Structures are given as structure tokens and as C-alpha cells.
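Sequence, C-alpha cells quoted for completeness.
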Amino acid sequence: MKASVRWLTWIAVATLAAGAAFASKDEAPAETPQQQARAHYDKGRGALDRASKLEARAEGAQTVEEREEILGKARKQFDKAAADFKKAVALDTGFYEAYSSLGYASRRLGDYEFAVQAYDTALELNPEYAEAIEYRGEAFLGLGEVDRAKDAYMKLFNLDRAKADELLAAMKDWIRDRRAAPDAPGGDKVDALAGWVKKRDEIASQGSDVSRNGGRGW
């Protein structure tokens, strides 16, 4: 078992054990561990859906206070989702979708480093899982690791164009947000990524194979 799998599994098992301590030792489980893992995963996905709806509501808030209140409720849903995904992977350590969703919830909570660990584990279990590749690329942006985000895009370009487009859109948002904060460090990095994104947009619009441009250093 690779390092990140062991690391995340240990955390997840500890989380599950803490909750199980209150259960009756004589009570036999009604479902298999995999079935229980799926139930926790579904609960977590439900919490993510509620968080997304709350964030949409926050966009229409009339005051800053109202917006912050709604976003606080969304954060609680992300917390609940992360807790359920940890239980899911404790019960089924091969549940790569749950690891990816744990990464998503953690990223939305601002814990980019933990999110990357979760995505790494999902991709050790399924290296072609496009969702985890795309979301990990967004986590790299959150950490300011733009070269690793670009690598994620390059892999997605041939694997899943829709996910590649999502990551490119996230890069554009990242560039816009950094330029809106003139005191933010790394202006040269932002400009370099903007140039790279423009070229990738041109290539994507032409339907070119990314492999044909490998020697250009984009």
C-alpha cells in the first residue's frame, strides 16, 4: 500500500472507530462494509448538493451579513460531507470515488494540502479517474502550483475534454481573481499562466491533438 493510501486510511479508520465506540458490541452489522461505505458516500454527496444550493443562494443575498450567514451554513454541509466520506473510505479502502469526493469537500473548506492527498489516493486506485485529475488540478491552483495544474490539464486534454475544459475555466478564474488583487504576490506567474491558457484555448478550438505540441514547451 502506498504512502498516501496508508496515511488517509489511518485517518479515516480513526474517525470511524471514534463513532463506533458508542455502538453496541453485540449488535451485528445489517450490511456489508461496502454497503455501509456506499451509504455514507451517498449521505456525503447529499451534503455536497445542499452546500452547492446554499452557495447559489448566497449569490443573491441582499447584505454582506446575510451572505456570510448562508455561506456559514454551506461550510457546515461541507464539513458533514467530509466526515461521511472519511467513514466511507474507512469501510472500503478501495473506494476511489469517495477519496475524490473527500478531496473535493476538503478543497472547498480551504484545506488544499489534505485535498491533494485525498486526490492522490483516488488516483493511485484509479489513475484514469478524470474527476480526481481535474479537481486535483484546481487544488494545485489553490496552492499556487500552476505547473502541476498545467500538467493535469495536459493529461485531461486527451482523456476527457469536458474535464479539461473545466480545469481551463478554473485557471481563467484563478487568473482573474489574482489580477483583481493587485497586492497579491506572483504577478509574473499569473501573466505566464495567462499566456499559456490563451495558447491552450487556441489549440482546443482547433481540435488539435495535444501530443503534437509537446515540443513547444506549452
Notes: The chain has two domains: 1-18+30-126, 128-209. DSSP finds nine helices and no strands in the chain. Residues 64-91 form the longest helix (28 residues).
